[in-house]
Amino acid sequence: MSSPLISFTVTHRGTPYPLTLRPDSTLASLYVQLEGLTGVPPSLQKLLYKARLRNPGDDASIVEAGIKDGLKVQMLGSTPQEIGGLQAAENEQQRINRIMRERAMKVPVKVRSTVTSSSATLNYRFHSLEPLPHLPKPSSALELLTRISNDPAICHVMQKHKFSVGLLTELAPHENPELLGLNVNRGQAIKLRIRTDAYDGFRPYLWIRKVLCHELAHNEWGDHGENFKELDSRLNKEVAEFERAAREGTHDLGGREVYEPPEELEAEVYTHVLGGSGEPSISLNESREDRRQRVLEATMNRLRKEEEQLEQSCGTAGPSATETS
């Protein structure tokens, strides 16, 4: 009598794929079926579930590998087309970096200064960006890492404090579920958790930037002592003040405002009552300057509360802070 078939579901990027296989089917045959369904080749597939074998080989049966009836498996992996797009984006980033280096070499050295603004920009920055290629949409992850590395407020504090980071990359939620950020060897690499737990998108940009400020402070201080807290608070305040100054009148040649203030900052001055109308409570006699000050103060209060959560989810002060990528 033949063994009963095993039915299970593999989910890739939110799409479930019901499968029914014989118990003696090999993992290699499963990978081939998944390639036909998702376009992801076996070499780029990663299946997440509680396995019976720690590292089952491709010739192991699905039963030996721990796949059983009714099991739900999550699959990670990118198609060759997506990998090609990531490589193209990386090549473009390298091209931009090369142009910046060439321009910096052409800048004449001033007699009264040994460091030009261009060389400072090249020194105090993120020297390399690297998303995790085995996770979904690596090109989108690279775009997010590029955006935050070029954030004017972040560039401002990095040059002001002379921060240099070798590599800016991401943390995989399933590999580091307890961590939001990690600074390896005081700036050798900074890793940020930019994705949602379900891999169906990315976390809010302002929250990712907040985590980044926290990890940048670890360039100077390894633990979460008072010196670290003071620097971390200063970085967040400088980011908020930089953006406030930008909102107050910095324009480009076309007369357009350079920076659009995030709605989250303006929302800090609103007071909502549970069960009430939800209308903002703002004094009509309040001046524009007073309101701006309230926005800044409310923002800093929120940042201080968030810092407590960050310290609980930061791996920099722990053993993993000295690991290499």
UniProtKB/TrEMBL annotation:
Tell me the GO molecular function terms. Answer: proteasome binding
* Stretches with biased composition (Polar residues): 311-325
Query: SUPFAM superfamilies, from UniProt?
Result: Ubiquitin-like
WLM domain residues: 117-304
Q: Identify the Pfam families for this entry.
A: ubiquitin (PF00240), WLM (PF08325)
Location of the Ubiquitin-like domain: 6-76
InterPro entries registered for this protein in UniProt = Ubiquitin-like_dom (IPR000626), Ubiquitin-like_domsf (IPR029071), WLM_dom (IPR013536)
In terms of superkingdom, the source organism counts as Eukaryota
* Residue segments, region Disordered: 303-325
Q: Which PANTHER family match?
A: DNA-DEPENDENT METALLOPROTEASE WSS1 HOMOLOG 2, UBIQUITIN AND WLM DOMAIN-CONTAINING METALLOPROTEASE SPCC1442.07C
Name of this protein? WLM domain-containing protein
| Organism, scientific name | Piloderma croceum (strain F 1598)
Taxonomic lineage per UniProt?
A: Eukaryota, Fungi, Dikarya, Basidiomycota, Agaricomycotina
